[in-house]
Amino acid sequence: MDLYVQSSSVVSKHASVCSDQPAATQIGIDILKRGGNAADAAVATMAAVSVIQPMACGIGGDCHCTFYRKKDKKVMTVNGRY
């Protein structure tokens, strides 16, 4: 079996979006550029992943999110599982 691994590094001062599908990642970035927040970008990115690569996304997965809420300067983590 051939295995191809692609890796890249990204540095940002303001925001980042990642997925294993470049087109889905770009959708998340576009949401942020249009004024959306991290949750908006995450939902949009995963919606795109579910179309592009449906076997990688489903109701049986985990949800691990860490985010910063600017208004009260808090970092929060959500660990959810269906």
Question: What is the strand and helix layout of this fold?
Answer:
Elements (H helix, E strand, L loop, with lengths): L21 H12 L4 H15 L9 E8 L4 E8 L1
Antiparallel strand pairs: 1-2
Helix pairs in contact: 1-2
Q: How is this structure best described in words?
A:
The protein is α+β, with helices and mostly antiparallel strands. It has helices at 22-33, 38-52, and strands at 62-69, 74-81. It has a two-stranded antiparallel ribbon with strand order 1-2. α1 packs antiparallel against α2. The model has no long low-confidence stretch (mean pLDDT 84). Pfam families: G_glu_transpept. This is Gamma-glutamyltranspeptidase 1. InterPro entries: GGT-like_enzyme, Ntn_hydrolases_N.
